[in-house]
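Exercise: predict the structure of this protein bound to glyceraldehyde-3-phosphate.
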Amino acid sequence: MTLAPTGVLVAEAAARGAAVPAVNVVTLEHAEAIVRGATRAGTGVILQVSENAVLFHGGDPRPLLLACRALAAAASGPVGVHLDHVQDAALIERAFEIAGEVGLGSIMIDAARLDYAANVRETADAARRAHALGLWVEAELGEVGGKDGAHAPGVRTDPGQAAAFVAATGVDALAVAVGSSHAMTEPSASLDTRLIERLAAVVPVPLVLHGSSGVPDAGLASAVRAGIRKVNVGTALNVAGTAALRAALAAEPALVDPRGPLRASRAAMEEVVEHLCRTLASA
Ligand code: G3H
Ligand code: ZN
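Solution:
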């Protein structure tokens, strides 16, 4: 059994000055690709299911999280299970209800859309309840650009406010806005590495980078050296996986069984994950 608590995975990485890859699960094939890619690279990984993915599956996170738990349990390396970007209060309740059953190790309370005081209030309350269940809690301050159409790569987290936010909420990790932007399909983002260093110097919990699909390998390595301890990737898998799916379908227009194209898509996503894991491991 290698289901691992997120907090342990991140703490072990932090002790080595490294970062844990956390990769978005949309379908079962994503989860399989993520575990296989990490296994090939010989590293740990976090399977993360976002609120958007939960909505895609009809609103209940349980089936997909149970699948993640089963894959984690069968993996040869440590695999964590995380619920990502949760804004909906009902989903937070549901997560707390099934956390033990689905092996959930952590949750990201995403109240960054609220003003500072409301973000603190909502995050602190959810963190207190999550901690009572043994969950590790990530939160966000300073919207990471690009989410929900708010494309704002210029957004930055203020170090003083970040330290105050962590003290006021008691969270275990903080997602910071340092130049990345969600849903980028090319690795063209330039991170503010100096800001990551300044944040790491004053924020007493691990820092999380979102929108990492848009960051080139060298940028990821610099970010880890500057203090990033969890690296969230989603879109890069879909870029590769959907391209492979499209090519496989185009090659056989009369095909009925979807398994061939899905196998090609899963293999392409696995390559992306293996490369990510190796990049972070060598940073
Ligand atoms: O929380 C998930 C990530 O921030 C994924 O971002 O899809 O742009 O890689 P990405
Ligand atoms: Zn994100």
